[in-house]
Design a protein that fits this description.
The protein has about 110 residues and is an all-alpha fold. Helices cover about 70% and strands about 0% of the residues. Helix 1 (about 15-40) packs antiparallel against helix 2 (about 50-70), helix 1 (about 15-40) packs parallel to helix 3 (about 80-105) and helix 2 runs antiparallel to helix 3. This is Calcium:proton exchanger.
Length: about 110
């Protein structure tokens, strides 16, 4: 009989410090990206440079958030919940903005 296979640990691990920063950056990317997309749709595709700046800033925030999320996984004995959430959110925003740039260059 194998002992210790069903052990439960009641020790709470602290959150990864870089995961907190990654989540803040992902929230900033979401705020800027959502506002930029809303203004672009509201302007019927004829948005100004301020909307382009919001989109580019959202792309940069999401890429930096991906970097911090990846660095959070290098911390040992930590809770990676915020890092996982931020990598998911910022990864979706990065893919969205890269697709928008490709569509803009082709069309």
């Amino acid at each position: 009989m194998e002992k210790g296979k069903n052990k439960i640990s009641y020790i709470r691990k602290p959150l990864a410090r870089r995961g907190k920063m990654a989540l803040i950056l992902a929230a900033a990317a979401t705020l800027l990206g959502g506002l930029g997309a809303y203004l672009a749709v509201r302007g019927n595709g004829t948005a100004g440079l301020n909307v382009a700046a919001m989109g580019f800033s959202s792309l940069l925030f999401s890429l930096v958030s991906l970097w911090y999320g990846w660095l959070a996984f290098l911390e040992r004995n930590r809770n990676y919940l915020m890092a996982k959430i931020s990598i998911g959110v910022s990864g979706l925003w990065a893919v969205f903005w890269v697709c928008m740039v490709i569509i803009g260059l082709r069309g």
